[in-house]
Amino acid sequence: MYVVSTSVPPHSNTLGLSADVLAFFEHVGAPALYGVSALVVPPLAHWGVNRVCGAPEPHTAAKLMIVARLIVALVVPCVFVLLLNQDCFALWLQVWKPCAEPGRFDISTSPKILGRRLTIPVISQSEVCSPPYQPDGRCPRAVVGTVGHLLLEKLIFTTCFGPIRMVLLSLPTARAAKEWVAHSLLRQTSYRASTDLDTECAGIVMLLELVLVFGFVVPLLVPVTAVAMLLHLSLIHI
Questions:
Q1: 121: burial class by Cβ within 10 Å (0-12, 13-18, 19+)?
Q2: Are 123 and 105 in contact (CB under 8 A)?
Q3: 3-state secondary structure at position 133
Q4: Inter-residue contact 10 to 18 (CB < 8 Å)
């Protein structure tokens, strides 16, 4: 939805998305991405491995988390930018109200030349609403700009909120609540709340992946990632 909010114009779209809704999607993109990566992917990975393997496999779950986070944080946003951005395949035009009107941009002129009236097309509906991909370098810049900005916001949110989340989850009350859910609702009587090192290592690997992929084109990612890793590692040792 973050990529949609940066591509679709407010009010003039057939989806009925207002400027306030699009602005909301743009501002919650980074927190939502962090929530999916940190709060949704790890338990789903452990649950899926338990269902398939029949027993906990921490290393397999960590590998699954790394792949899932890579898809959520990099692959999906890049694909949506490629499809929707004006500098790429510009599919946002398919939900633009003027393009939904047949013949809106079919414009021609009819000059009289040598006594004969000729019809000369100036522009067509397909040229405006279905422009071809132009390999002129604008699309890669759009991908880097949009996804890089999203990842930078996500890492800043991770740096600020991630340590607080880890401290809160380490409190005795939070550990007791996790054990109660596991024992009473999930029927896992042997569960004991503890810090999952495989999950934390998967998070560190993901930070390194982001730097290796986008660090050379979004320089601010490097110091922000370094701060996030230092805080992450210090809290694990604590």
A1: exposed
A2: yes
A3: coil
A4: yes
- Please compute the mean of the pLDDT values over residues 108-127 and round it to a whole number: 79
64 and 49 in contact (C-beta within 8 Å)?
A: yes
Q: What band does 20 get if pLDDT is binned at 50, 70 and 90?
A: confident
In the numeric block, the tokens 């604008």 are attached to 138
Tokens of 207: 């930070």
pLDDT band at 79 (very low <50, low <70, confident <90, very high): very high
pLDDT band at 237 (very low <50, low <70, confident <90, very high): low
- Are 11 and 19 spatial neighbours (Cβ–Cβ below 8 Å)? yes
Averaged pLDDT for residues 102-124: 80
Q: Are the C-beta atoms of residues 34 and 157 closer than 8 Å to each other?
A: yes
| pTM score of the predicted model | 0.80
Q: What is the DSSP letter of 122?
A: E
Angle between helices 197-214 and 138-169 (to 10 degrees): 160
Instruction: Confirm if 218 and 148 have CB atoms less than 8 A apart.
Output: yes
